[in-house]
């Protein structure tokens, strides 16, 4: 998004995202909850695929199916409209961050219950020391940015608790 305006035109990381996405033609792009919506619709629009929102309970207007999952601090749930994906459709699940992998693994289970084939997951930020990728049932995971070390990341978040994500 706006790569030229942000000095990222030609950035190999953005090229990697583009190449990874374009090799799987004609599949929906589920975006997980609110922050995943910053990326999912734009990517889906850019490649001409549909966008399927996966939301927290009670936020979608029509009939839904749901998938509960365990977090490090409790449980949560994702919902998707019934009929949003069809059996055999290929999906890329997009989110802003992977830590424990709970949200992405719930998204995978939900889509596969509806007969979709989850081809890959993509996140802007990955926290490799938390090892969330091991919960993705062998699905490939593309990560744009990883902090150099967890102590640096935790210190940054502790000093600025009023934001969830900053994009430069």
Form type: globular
- Number of strand elements: 7
Q: Number of DSSP helices?
A: 5
CATH third-level topology: Rossmann fold
Element-by-element helix/strand order: HEHHEEEEHEEH
**Describe the biggest sheet?**
3 strands, parallel
Structural class of the secondary structure composition? alpha/beta
Domain Phosphoribosyltransferase: 31-126
Subcellular location: Cytoplasm
EC number: 2.4.2.7
Main location: cytoplasm
Detailed description of the structure:
This protein is of the alpha/beta class. The protein has a single domain (33-167), classed as 3-Layer(aba) Sandwich (Rossmann fold). It has five helices and seven strands. It has a three-stranded parallel beta sheet with strand order 5-6-7, with helices on both faces. The chain has a two-stranded parallel ribbon with strand order 1-2. A hairpin with a 2-residue loop joins strand 3 and strand 4. The model is unreliable at 1-6 and 155-168 (pLDDT under 50).
